[in-house]
Write a structure and sequence with these properties.
alpha/beta; 8-stranded mixed beta sheet; Rossmann fold
Length: about 375
Amino acid sequence: MQSKNLISQVKSEIVEIEADDIDVSATTFLDVREPAEVEGGVIEDSIHIPRGTLETNIENKITDHDENIVVYCASGIRSAFASKTLSDLGYTNVKSLIGGFNGWKDKGNKFIVPKVLNSSQAIRYARHLLLPEVGEAGQQKLIDAKVLLLGAGGLGSPAGMYLAASGVGNIGIIDMDIVDNSNLQRQIIHSTQTIGMEKTESAKMRLLGLNPDCKIETYNERLNADNAMEIVSKYDIVLDGTDNFPTRFLLNDVSVTLGIPVVHGSIFRFEGQVSVFDPTNGPCYRCFLPEPPPPELAPSCAEAGVLGVLPGIVGCLQAIETMKYILGIGDLLIGRVLSFDSLEMKFREFKIRKNPDCKTCGSHVEEIKIKEYDQYCLV
């Protein structure tokens, strides 16, 4: 009897709404059910915060206290208490869905059955699930994402390992090289045991050992004008770990043509830099570097050397930018280059702007010809 009285009291202090009276296009739906209940279906585009964690997480998910919110649970009881809590927290336009999700579904309203993490994934990615900016929905984005690692060397090694560990579900690796003893000073994805093995296979073996749920596709070949469009088009984003300008310029042409972003990284001796070139939302690589430098001004790591740990720092920064893009969070390095000097232990940032006269993405360019740049800086 006391519980019934409490429910009646709470309902008298909130606003309830019938499913038929909701303007879906102008409403934010808040699902306060437990994770196991969500597996049976949700109202599309709902924000999910279990009732028990509502007070601690709501401010991170819904920042506008005047937003039009409809709260729902299974039957309409927990949502009533949740609505009261939100009102107490200062939210001014909150309603509880009468009949809850069960009533919504019984009336034939639209709902979807979301992808959910299995028990093993919930444990593996538990630290991600605690982050409001990631959560289960974000983790599912990572699992569904398709990332191409261009190079399984110094930059691709740490980036690939952290992307696989973080749950990126589909990773392509393109590299035509063989693991050599001289690689092991910085290319930590490989080992003494894989010397003589194709880098793509060595990397695949390491990533699957780290996360067997990843799907790894390998391309034991060089990215060239004949295969670039076909390979890159299969992916959402490219992490560029190449060390030569011909491939970077070729990749940029393909990126702009397909509208697929590239997370750029480069290293030289004690310095490195990272940027994101998203052709749909900023300058391209050729806006940054209009023409390849002459070969004598562009020595490779094999010619100039590199501090072994430096690729780890730059590659990890690339992995972070890639994950931010997939999750749709944070401020990407679009139109910005982040430079790192390991001797001075300083980060610097400088801006780059879209060049209207760019030979690749400029307004005057009618068609991009996918071609080789082998006359420049071959290594």
